[in-house]
Amino acid sequence: MKKGFALIGAGLFGQRHAQAYQRHPLVDFKYVCDLDEARAKSVAETYGAEAFTTDFNEIMADPEVMAVSVATPDPAHRAAVVAAAKAGKHILVEKPLATTVEDAEAMIAAANEAGVKLMVDFHNRANPPMVAARDAVARGDIGKPSYVYTRLSNTVAVPRDMLKWSSQSSALWFLGSHMIDVVGWILNDKPVRAYVVARDGILKGMGVDAPDFHVATVEYESGTVGVFEHAWILPDTYNTVKDLKVELLGSKGAIQIDGSHNRTMELYTQQKGTFPDMLVPPFGPNLTGFVLDAVVHFVEAVLFDKPVLATGEEGLANTKIISALIEAARLGQPVQLPR
């Protein structure tokens, strides 16, 4: 029997949630909610939702809605998440969970008090090369990880044109939250200390009050060192909207991930190198794969009472770390990271 799901926030990633709900055979897609009524109507019609609204309280009052996705702008998750929890709805919220520790803690408290599931959409945990890297590290294929390099950046069109709220965020929040989460998940390790540098000027010249980039050096409990680069100023002529690279070096081998173009993982050990010999382009105009898979994971966690992909507590830890990295950049000196 189908169960009711609803979407709050019908922007770019909200539409990916809508796409997953439309396709899932056990989902009755009830509502799309957005402050922009025309967009709410358009997304509801495109993805087959039964109704649209500009007031999420209409969704909360409907007993047929079992769960909601919250894909509002990053700083604006709290109101919808807390309302959903109080209404007894399970919640999938886009990453980062919050841009303040206070908001994150309030959302977790509301979900715990109501006894509902709260999943943070760290969808790179469902990204096949990231999963393969985690498995390889767990098997000991590369020995003890010693160094991780990761880069996730966007073209300048993202903060300038796509995100109307980019001045309330940064590349570190929007992109770095992904990579801090997935690297810790791959390593099964916790960051303890960081030094961060940020610069601004280019975006401010375009009317966006956000740093151009952050570069962070992060030490982990195990002694592994990671470097994280996140920029919002790649030129518009770049051949993809995002640039994603990950490299892990260990005592016995290395892993390289290209998440921008061929979306593959290469594994090199002392015995052999394994790498893909075929590039697979996307098929058709719609985004498919792991982004939708993460939403499907939430649906099945709700319907079959399974664990979620990333918990609210993991989202809180991520918010604390990103907040500390931003403070480190402001101070211009190393900081201890919250445990």
Summarize the structure.
The protein is an alpha/beta fold and 339 residues long.
Structure characterization notes:
This protein has 339 residues and is of the alpha/beta class. The protein folds into 2 domains: 3-116, 3-Layer(aba) Sandwich (Rossmann fold), CATH 3.40.50; 124-282 and 318-336, Dihydrodipicolinate Reductase, domain 2. The protein is built from 10 helices and 15 strands. The strands form 2 sheets. It has a 9-stranded mixed beta sheet with strand order 14-13-12-11-7-10-9-8-15. The longest helix has 20 residues, at 312-331. The protein starts with a strand and ends with a strand. This is Gfo/Idh/MocA family oxidoreductase. Residues 134-337 form the Gfo/Idh/MocA-like oxidoreductase C-terminal domain.
Largest sheet: 9 strands, mixed
Task: Find the structural class using helix and strand composition.
Answer: alpha/beta
Task: Give the CATH level 1 class of the largest domain.
Answer: Alpha Beta
* Average pLDDT reading: 94
Topology:
Elements: E1 3-8, H1 12-23, E2 27-33, H2 37-47, E3 51-53, H3 56-60, E4 65-70, H4 78-86, E5 90-94, H5 101-114, E6 118-121, H6 128-139, E7 145-154, H7 157-162, H8 171-187, E8 191-199, E9 213-220, E10 225-231, E11 242-250, E12 253-258, E13 264-269, E14 273-274, H9 290-304, H10 312-331, E15 335-336
